[in-house]
Amino acid sequence: MLRPLLFALLLQPAVARFNPTASQAEHELTRRIVESLDLEDLNEKERALALYTWITHNINYDAELLCTGEINQENQSVTQVLRTGKAVCSGYSILFQALAIQADLESSMVEGHAKAARTPGYSVQSAYEPNHNWNMVKWDDTWHMVETTWGSGQLNECTFEKEPDLFWFDPPLGQTVFSHYTEDYELPAAFLESFPEGTWSWEVFSSLPMCAPLCSRGYPAEYILEALQKRPEARSFFNLPNTISLVAGGIHPDQLNTFILHSDTLDAVKIFTFECEDCAIQTLPLERNLAPGKSYTWEITGAPDTEFFLVGPERLLVEFVPNEGLYRCEYTPQVSGIYKIARQLSPGYFTTLLEYTVPQ
């Protein structure tokens, strides 16, 4: 359960690095954007969301500039960002700040550290060192996080993929403990009950796994912290691409949490790219190694006429039974080998969703 957060913003470091003071030209550019958004009848949160949406849809992350390291105040100015349609985190934050002023919002730039796991050469340092900017916006007498940089898309080393994501508009602050840290504001209370007052620090933050991809897909931060406390070896499990794919494929957090806490090996079923936008896995054995002679059940929701099969050794082919959009299969493996849950795309052509092993 989240405790209240009290923010006493100390913003001089972020402002000193990138001065957001607007020129007349910048003022006019931002005024026109805000006027085009028709914010007059919106409340503070709705106005902030309109700005977030405009930025995340219209500004791309400048991956090339990040990789060359030629970031400076000039190329991150409001004028330059709007001219090129590109920015790194400081440019995103400065632009949001400038638009927020025009939209009559109380907003502040924050300088802190974000775990940039996909940035070339990144590693968590032993001492706190800021590497990122975002914004805090006040509505309903409370400060809220607005992270336009991460909300714009996915950065994979020096390549940016446009993929606007609403999760980073006012994300649950308890879930940002894995990704964002700052000393620009004080935290008189802890983020979570797991961090009693006074124990939240850079050392704690840097020891946590990078779980933002899981949290943004709805996996509760409380489950991760519980697992780390009860089973420290699970730390690497949360960083595995396969774990993220399991959550993205529709595995319920309660089921995955139970597996993490009680599995003998933490060796989960291998999940492949889930090439079925209108499908979701409802029930499955999460362990990768299935026991011969034990009965297992799989359930997948899907559109009408979707065909799912269990494919195994000795030309085994068991079709899932459909029932009003739910496809179900029960099977007891007897023969050792590789077993796959697959979707049939056309007669004789399958795409693998899950892969298991029945050991000898």
Commentary on this structure:
With 360 residues, the protein is of the alpha+beta class. The chain folds into 2 domains: 8-208, C8orf32 fold (Roll); 228-358, Immunoglobulin-like (Sandwich). The protein is 30% helix and 25% strand. The chain is built from 13 helices and 19 strands. The chain has helices spanning 12-17, 24-36, 44-58, 63-68, 78-84, 89-102, 148-151, 202-207, 212-215, 221-230, 235-238, 241-248, 253-262, and strands at 8-9, 60-61, 86-87, 106-114, 132-139, 142-146, 153-156, 159-162, 180-181, 185-186, 270-271, 280-283, 296-301, 308-312, 316-319, 321-323, 326-331, 337-346, 349-358. Strand 7 (153-156) and strand 8 form a beta hairpin. Helix 3 crosses helix 6. The longest helix is centred in the N-terminal third of the chain and has 15 residues, at 44-58. The radius of gyration is 24 Å and the shape is elongated.
